[in-house]
Amino acid sequence: MFGHSISQRKFAALLSASMIFLTSCSGGKQVRFTSLFKDDDETTAATAIAKIEKTYRIKPDRRYLIALSDLAYILQGKRIGKVEADFVEGKWQIRAERIVISEIEDNPTFDQICNSLLTFVHKLEGKEGAYWLPEKGKSAYTEELNEKVKVLISDYSPNSLINALALLNDKWRAQGGTQRSVDHLATALTSLFFQTNDKAGAADDLGGRALAFVVLGKRYATEHALSNSIRLAEAMGYHAEASRLCWDLSKENPLRMYVMYQAETLGSAIIQGIDSNETKFLYIKKLAQSEKIDELKRILASAFPPNTTVAKIDIPANELAIGNLKPLALPIAGCLQPLKDSSLLPADFFEAEIYLADNLRSISKLKDEGESAAEAEDPLFEKLGTYVNALDVCDKDKVFSNALIASFYRSFAYSEGLNELYLPNGSYVKKDAAEAFKKQFGDVKNKKEFGYEFEKFAQNIIDSRNGNYHVSEVLGHVAAENDFGAVPRFIALDETARWFAPGEFKILSAGKTLFANVDSRPSSRFYLSNFAHDELLHPLLGVTLGESALKASPDVPETVEVAKQLSNREFLRQMSVNKTYAPSQRANALSSLFDLIGVRETGVRDDIVAKARQLVDENPSNIVVLQHYVNIATKLGLQIDAIAVTQSWLATASARGTKAEEAYPEKAIFKAKELLVSLYAKNGQPEKALEVPGGKIVPESSHDAAVSYINSILAAKKDPQSASMFADLYYDSNRISPRALALKTRILWHNKAYDKAAMLLREYPWCIKVENWRDDLYPAFRAALQESPNEMSSAVRALAKENFVESSNFGELAKSFANHGKVDVAFSLLDSMLKTSFSGNELNFLNLATQAYVYLREIKGEKAALQWVQDKVPPQFYTPTAMYAVQNGAFDLLWKLLPRQPEGVGSEYVWMARAATVPLQKELSPEDNKLLIAHYSKIDLDPMFLIGKSMLGATDANKLLDVHMNVREIGDLAYYMGFRDAHMGDQPKAAEWYHLALETGVNKASETARNAEAIRQLHQYYPEWSTNSVVGNESNSK
Fold first, then answer.
1. Helix ranges (DSSP H) in 716-841
2. Within 10 A of 763 (CB to CB), how many other CB atoms are there?
3. Residues 390-411 pLDDT 10s
4. CA 98 to chain centre
5. What is the structure's pLDDT at 971?
6. What is the biggest distance separating any 2 CA atoms in the chain, rounded to whole angstroms?
7. How crowded is residue 648: how many other Cβ atoms within 10 Å of its Cβ?
8. When comparing pLDDT for 358 and 222, which is higher?
9. Considering Cα of 614, then 619, then 621, then 627, what sign does the dihedral take?
10. Which burial class, exposed, middle or buried, applies to 115 when counting CB atoms under 10 A from its CB (0-12, 13-18, 19+)?
11. Measured in whole angstroms, how far is the alpha carbon of residue 713 from the centre of its chain?
12. 247 CB contacts (<8 Å, ≥6 apart)?
């Protein structure tokens, strides 16, 4: 029977409706998102494709648009209107006051940006060359001023550069500019922008002004035009072009050494007398990027007095000492932040916040008043706001301004804010996170005050992490015009993505909002590539963006993840052996390469392990390198080797002691002990795992360590209550993590508290996605219930009682068992679920029934399986089963369960499904074949009829692109075209069609799930999802 509580009348009414409305995955909370299409829209597939493509174009680098406006102001003395970009016939047209003022390529390079701006400069100059700067202001630029500016620029500290720019601004305002002043302005601006720690994109206006003067330097062939271009290209993220331009610099140029070579080259240059402050800064920055921790600490100790935040370290006489660099403390602190994030340096080693307010106050009207104790305790944003309001360096903007100074310091302040929002293990949220943020940064109430927009953004993110999502607030930060750039918007999107399933129309809508509000700089393309691949399920867009980002900036940390996504083994292999990359990048490349290759390619696999071990030996204090080695070794089952290496690492840490120049960071040591706990647990030594000295697992610990700790308690048969207590504690602090949810649910299942487990899942605020069932809940379910049929049935009944299986996601639990060879268990789970109530979720009943049919057919054969499904599904519901029969590979049901001559609503869909699956039908009878031919011999203009006919090759499928049809019918066309191309081996074409199906399947949960699964079955783009490989993370079940 169908199930005791099913209303067939209700089901029939539901099936006749044109759609099922999507709600959020958070227990039915309704949120509003816009959609490109309405259900009753009539259009063509070609038009729909063009409309969708337009929404995923990213505007040119915002700093380029700012530079256009700045150039007009610099050369003409007046601002142009709001600069806007429109994509027309393969290029971006840039308009101001509706007039086209420039054009540029899609995803432009640094060279293309400069060339476009040069063209604009020529337009501004006019035919007579009215703005040829060398003819203006010659008398204003005296040798005395020249020398004064040169001294300030050579000092290289932020405030010296700001003072130089203020002098140049005053002279330009009074008497215009010269070729020499353009050169100095470009040098000072690019140097200042290069020093920013601008994670948040808060200094784009400074970058745009620097770009404007770099272009003017090119135009007037100034002395340092090339080095200024390189410095800016590097600072803007166009690393490949910066490297290419360096070939035209002399080999002794420190900028060339920084961009092209290792830190040792710059160190040697300083010893040999190339010892400007810029060279010293570049050396420290390169040491930080290269993760040369010991050398970095020694150099900083020699460069800063003992009373700074760097502990006093004795420098041997033969070591390089580079003098007092306290004026450069702020940008140096910015260089060190990534090392703190990775636990390669202690969090309090060198704090930017200490220098931030001090530097800003020194150039404000309050510079002579000192800092009272009360001011010292003020929150950062409030304190900086006081000094920004008192700036008097450059009141009247001509080529520089107080606003640009504020942006420079804002970049550091907002980066500090992002550090506070950073989640060390990816999910740990402090109970008092909101109040802690206010205490450190302030509770800014006035919209005009420093930090208002960022503080509001941070509080909304924290609120979302506490289970309170409001689209108008979180997603509003993505669309708003504010004083920060892309990264905060990315964080807002990541928080949004926690609430919705990949491919769901709400996440597609959120993605379009993001694409409309970020630009084409390489760092943005890296994120957008991943987001397109993982959340939008648009792999072709991910490939396009990823490849262009790799080409523009091949040497930043983000490249590894994108290269892995693109399955670019050669790029990863080259990165792993190139010593110009940081050790952690090389280790990450090896780990990613191993994941792509797997355990089967023995020779390559062993080489990867050996190289990872060598990196550990060469970088003894680098915890990130150790983590990647352990990851690789564990996947190969080399726990004993990994244990020995980790123990050796910890022994070395202990021997180094506590002296500042030698000690390992405490957090790194703690992480190494976490690794040891996990390794012992996975090696079947639970007692040792629980006895690691100082290896106490806490809520801030990694998920792997938490799972290993629970496994060890249970395996060692310790107090079971301690496992429950820890699971509760860990979940309470890591609620946003589905892994923490799975860990707590596992303990409840283990304790046979099935109703509590179901209720916990039901009340989870965020979306439990298909991948969470596969990667987290499946291993937990399997480990807790040990495949006991009775216990698993009880757990499933409890889930059904809570009506948690209202979506198709539950089917992933059964599928995971099947993928691991437990087809009988997979069927048993579905059979138990199908005996319970599915009131209001009847379409999902058909989905799970056809999935169960496939498993039973494998176990008992077609006859028994067919009898089972006939008993489960009443005849009046056979027709809507067609979609699920195709989706789940039960193609034979299209003929053996469904009526041979279907009639009424949905009958044409059945014929279309039959036509699409003809090549995959193993036993299509001659009679069935005749029926199919007879059906499609008719003349019929119904879109579904035409789609089915094209599936048989009786008509050109491409001609359907221009046929007007309903959006729902376009979705069916796209799905079946993708289905055909996927089975013919053309996965790129299939990906294109499937994504069109996803975009046009608005508000239809069943089709969305079908389309999303079809996309992720494309092995070329989602190899880890393919049913041909073992899926699921077994860490919960070890």
1. 720-733, 738-750, 754-762, 770-772, 778-785, 789-801, 811-819, 823-833
2. 12
3. 888 777 778 999 999 999 999 9
4. 35
5. 94
6. 99
7. 14
8. 222
9. negative
10. middle
11. 35
12. none
The rounded distance, in Å, linking the Cα atoms of 772 and 786 is 20
Across the range 847-852, mean pLDDT stands at 93
Question: How many C-alpha atoms does 960 have within 13 Å on its Cβ side?
Answer: 27
Separation of alpha carbons 1000 and 949, rounded Å? 21
Token couple for 1011: 């389309």
* Amino acid 1004: pLDDT: 76
Could you tell me if 198 and 410 are in contact, meaning their C-beta atoms sit under 8 angstroms apart?
A: no
Distance CA 458, CA 430 (A): 14
Distance of CA 216 to the CA centre of its chain: 36
Neighbours of 649 (CB within 10 A): 25
How far is CA 457 from its chain centroid?
Answer: 18
pLDDT on residue 476: 84
| Long-range contacts at 10-14 (CB < 8 A, ≥ 24 apart) | 10/839, 10/840, 10/842, 11/842, 11/877, 12/876, 14/842, 14/843
Instruction: In the chain, count H helices and then E strands.
Output: 54, 5
Q: Given a cut of 50, is residue 386 above it in pLDDT?
A: yes
Residue type, position 13, single letter: A
The amino acid occupying position 1037 is: S
Indicate whether 876 pLDDT > 60: yes
- The pLDDT tens digits of the residues spanning 656-705 come to 877 666 789 999 999 999 999 999 999 999 999 999 988 789 999 999 99
Q: Can you tell me the distance from the alpha carbon of 793 to that of 60, in angstroms, rounded to the nearest whole number?
A: 56
Total number of residues shown for the chain: 1038
| Helix-helix angle 569-577:558-565, to 10 degrees | 150
The DSSP H or E segment spanning 624 is helix 623-635
Query: Whose structure tokens read 């000092």?
Result: 155
Question: Rounded to 10 degrees, what is the CA torsion of 306, 308, 311, 313?
Answer: -40
Q: Which amino acid is at 418?
A: L
| Structural contact between residues 893 and 881, judged by C-beta atoms closer than 8 angstroms | yes
Name the one residue in this structure whose structure tokens are 């009829």.
945
Distance CA 40, CA 968 (A): 8
Euclidean distance between CA atoms 531 and 533, whole angstroms: 5
DSSP string, 819-857: HTT-HHHHHHHHHHHTTS--TT-HHHHHHHHHHHHHHHH
Residue 1037 has pLDDT above 60, yes or no: no
pLDDT at 810: 83
Distance separating alpha carbons of residues 380 and 128, to the nearest angstrom: 51
Which residues have CB under 8 Å from 23's CB, separation 6+? 29, 30
The answer to whether 962 and 975 are in contact (CB under 8 A) is no
Beta carbons within 10 angstroms of residue 836's beta carbon: 18
The pLDDT assigned to 137 comes to 47
pLDDT at 8: 36
- Name the percent of the chain lying above pLDDT 90: 66
Nearest to 230 by CA among 220, 241, 222, 215: 241
**CA dist., res. 730 & res. 754, Å (int):** 20
Q: What is the 3-state secondary structure (H, E, C) of 465-530?
A: HCCCCCHHHHCHHHHCCCCCCHHHHHHHHHHHHCCCCCCCHHHHHHHHHHHCCCECCHHHHHHHHH
